[in-house]
Amino acid sequence: MRIKSGMIALIGAMALAGPALGGTKDDVRDLQARMQQAEQAIANQSAMMVRISELESRNQQLTGRIEELTYKLEQANQRLDAVTAALSGGTASEFGDAPVAGDGPVDLMGGASGAAMSSDDPIGDQIARETTVDQTGTVGGGDVSLPIDPNAAFDYASGFLLAGDYQRAKAAFSLYLEAFPNHQRTPDAQFRLGEIHLALGENAAAADAFIAHIRNYPNNSRAAEAYLKLGTAFARLDKTSEACTVFKTMKSKHPNAPSAVVQRTDLEMARIDCK
After folding, report:
1. Angle (CA) 46 48 52, round 5°
2. How far, in Å, CA of 203 to CA of 238, rounded?
3. Could you give the CA distance from residue 129 to residue 97 in angstroms, rounded to a whole number?
4. Within the chain, which residues score under 50 in pLDDT?
5. What is the 3-state secondary structure (H, E, C) of the chain?
6. What is the pLDDT of residue 24?
7. Helices 223-236 and 203-216, interaxial angle, to 10°?
8. Long-range contacts of 25-32 (CB under 8 A, 24+ apart)
9. Residue 275 has what pLDDT?
10. What is the C-alpha to C-alpha distance for residues 207 and 197, in angstroms, rounded to an integer?
11. In the prediction, which pLDDT does 16 show?
């Protein structure tokens, strides 16, 4: 009887332990699955950290490159500004023989004189007639050929200016205005063209160029300076009344103009005895 009772007790204990053992196996499997998921997550996280590190390194390289290019662009612009500033303060005799027009625009708000531009800027007229786009990716006209990319074309034109080749610089900037009338660098091209004309003694063409700049880009950062250069062109054309009107208009429209522009304007007004 005791043996029989022991067997019954053992069977009963095994029956009770069966579900518990089954549950433990499931728990182990679940734990193993979770561990695998955790290991995969850690591996993914490690890979992500490596990728982030690579991106940060790449970003630093790009930032350094951008800063380098920005610095070079600023240096190039400073050189161009220095050249054009020197040019606009010169006379025709300093830059070789150049025609000095006897007539030019007389009304700031009226139309620019087409005759003055034609007689004073034969290269520009030729470019306007001969502008083409060739199969090598350049915009050609006269003896210059601009790249079809507007930024590259601006740099190309500026290269002539920096090299002191003012005739080709004039031709290139004239062509730039024809080829890229709506680009963000077009106002600067228009301004530089006016300064080149002014430096070469082509005062009527300079006046036309600065009138175009004032009319088309009234809010440009160099608008006040364009008035100064326009007044200077009129003064050199012996149009004192028009020059004084332009100088006074600049002071009225641009009361916060750079001090250098204001000082130069005052000097020009005193020189021609503006009342």
Report:
1. 120
2. 10
3. 25
4. 10, 88-137, 140-141
5. CHHHHHHHHHHHHHHHHHHHHHHHHHHHHHHHHHHHHHHHHHHHHHHHHHHHHHHHHHHHHHHHHHHHHHHHHHHHHHHHHHHHHHHHCCCHHHHCCCCCCCCCCCCCCCCCCHHHHHHHCHHHHHHHHHCEECCCCEEEECCEEEECCHHHHHHHHHHHHHCCCHHHHHHHHHHHHHHCCCCCCHHHHHHHHHHHHHHCCCHHHHHHHHHHHHHHCCCCCCHHHHHHHHHHHHHHCCCHHHHHHHHHHHHHHCCCCCHHHHHHHHHHHHHCCCC
6. 79
7. 150
8. none
9. 86
10. 9
11. 52
How do strand 132-133 and strand 144-147 relate by DSSP bridges? unpaired
Cα dihedral sign, 85-202-223-260: positive
- Predicted structure pTM score: 0.56
- Contact (CB, 8 A) for 167 and 202: no
For residue 247, the one-letter residue type is: F
Kind of pairing between the strands at 138-141 and 132-133: antiparallel
Q: Is residue 101 a contact partner of residue 237, using CB atoms and an 8 Å limit?
A: yes
As given in the structure block, the two tokens for residue 275 are 């009342």
| Residue 208 pLDDT | 96
C-alpha of 5 from chain center: 99
* Residues 119 and 101: beta-carbon distance below 8 Å: yes
**Surface-to-core class of residue 208, CB atoms within 10 Å of its CB (0-12 exposed, 13-18 middle, 19+ buried):** buried
